[in-house]
Amino acid sequence: MSTRGLLDSLSHVLLLSSASPATVQSAAATLYSLLVVDDYRPIIGAKRDIVYALINIIRKENSPPRSIKDALKALFGISLYPLNRTTMIELGVVPALFSLVVNDSRVGVVEDSTAVIAQVAGCDESWGAFQKVSGIGVLVDLLDHETGSSNRARENSVAGLLSLVLSGGHKVVANVQGMGSRALDGIADVAENGSSKGKNKANALLNILNGGSGGFRGPRFDVPQVHSS
Ligand SMILES: *[C@@H]1O[C@H](CO)[C@@H](O)[C@H](O)[C@H]1NC(C)=O
Ligand SMILES: *[C@@H]1O[C@H](CO)[C@@H](O)[C@H](O)[C@H]1NC(C)=O
Ligand SMILES: *[C@@H]1O[C@H](CO)[C@@H](O)[C@H](O)[C@H]1NC(C)=O
């Protein structure tokens, strides 16, 4: 079967309301395995049907946990393409992801959801969508050790806040600053105790929040370059 033909049938299955959980599960798993191959990412991401079907899986209360995990991994792969983030936001990925973070306590779900959140935060449309779900407040909550979040979730939260600040500019900076010392302490903790990637992002974020050298003038001017490796 050609890749296109396969994708058409996968999206058909994913959108079929009568599909059994096992069928949905295997379609989501197939998509995820295709997304591991770089070449297929743009092809899959180009299909709004598929993006929509994946978001539906994470939105539906009765989706089997394995399908949610596979759908999150597939959405992560799609979100690595900046152009796809806008589509994902248009199709409602932000409230679906935050609802998982807030309401789903299953192991790994918060980590995988925040990984996608950190990616989609990096586009022009993200701020509006995040505001509607009090996204900054939720990300700052995750930074607080008291909420029992894992290191991975906390680093994803920092990455998400950094992406939001870089794409949204001043108003987002003011909003994060408005969260007060709880936000700053949490970010400082990642800057000191996180992985090397986490430290870099947390330091970059702290620089911006503290006004950096000469203050924040917008992403293109004085934001330290963060190399992810
Ligand atoms: C996803 O990204 C790819 C590569 O940039 C692009 O070709 C495709 O149109 C995008 N898909 C959507 C639905 O935005
Ligand atoms: C979490 O679940 C409650 C109860 O089902 C619901 O009212 C609330 O809107 C959910 N929160 C999010 C962020 O979706
Ligand atoms: C780093 O971790 C140590 C040990 O848990 C803790 O005492 C310290 O306060 C943390 N650093 C920050 C800046 O929170």
From TrEMBL:
Domain U-box: 13-165
Protein name listed in UniProt: U-box domain-containing protein
InterPro entries (UniProt xref): ARM-like, ARM-type_fold, ARM_PUB
Signal peptide (from-to): 1-26
PANTHER family, sorted: ARM REPEAT SUPERFAMILY PROTEIN, U BOX DOMAIN-CONTAINING
Keywords: Signal, Ubl conjugation pathway
Keyword Lyase on entry: no
Pfam families documented for this protein: ARM_PUB
The keyword Signal belongs to this UniProt entry's keyword annotation: yes
